[in-house]
Write the structure tokens for this entry.
Amino acid sequence: MTDSTPYIGRFAPSPTGPLHIGSLVAAMASYLDAKAHHGLWLVRIEDVDGDRNVAGADDHILASLRRCGMRWDGDVTWQSRRSALYEQALLRLGELVYPCGCSRKEIADSQLHLTGKQAQALIYPGTCRHGLAPGKIARALRLKVPRVPHCVVAFDDRWAGHVGQDLTDEVGDFVVKRADGFWAYQLAVVVDDGAQGVTDIVRGADLLDSTPRQLYLQQLLGLPTPSYLHVPVVLNESGEKLSKQTGATAFDHGAEPRQLLRDALLPAARFLGLDVQAESIADFWRAATPAWARLIQRP
């Protein structure tokens, strides 16, 4: 993108429960980056994983954002209402997509002989790449990753610096539609960012490893590549990413604005490295926006 391209950012939470302090950090970083660059800030509910969605969580998330003083531009979008866009993208990928009948256990068993980095992730060995094996039933749809030459994807992250990944050796052919019929995150997020004209993606570092796959999909679909910034994730006392699965609790239980400022906004800002003093939520954003601009200089 060029300096003349209008900035469009987004926050895209999954409605698996109310926002906790870890998700507030990601929301705050994306919001501040948009405001510091006089851009638009969109909100998209990533609810394609129907099994994990919690009823009413999307409304709770939106209410928490409002209470924190974060106002989005335009209408909120829900991924569950955008399946037609994902189907179109699947058709455009054509013969690069193939049905796979392998279970996670079968993939794991195929890697028992591997060592080092390859043994740390479920790298698909390509069992169904040239057709389903006898007796197998299609479970998911996978996207082919080139093997010769290797598909190496690199980019410059605004926080983490230069990042590179060999998709051939470190990922393999990856899922674009899951065995349960839900669209895979990698495909849905790329299609949505392209359709919404997102130019800058600010999110947690737990998604840094997904970015090369998304860049590869953008290339195949002829979509522009946004700028990326991955902020550190909040960890619990055991050193695990703070999430609902690791015991994260909601930061917003109807607290008064001053309590919300003291117990949520100011700690989240400190975690991001911002030295902000404020007596009200409005004061907080007035101080935090230029503080973020000083901390992060957009190329």
Observations:
- The mean pLDDT is 90.
- DSSP finds nine helices and ten strands in the chain.
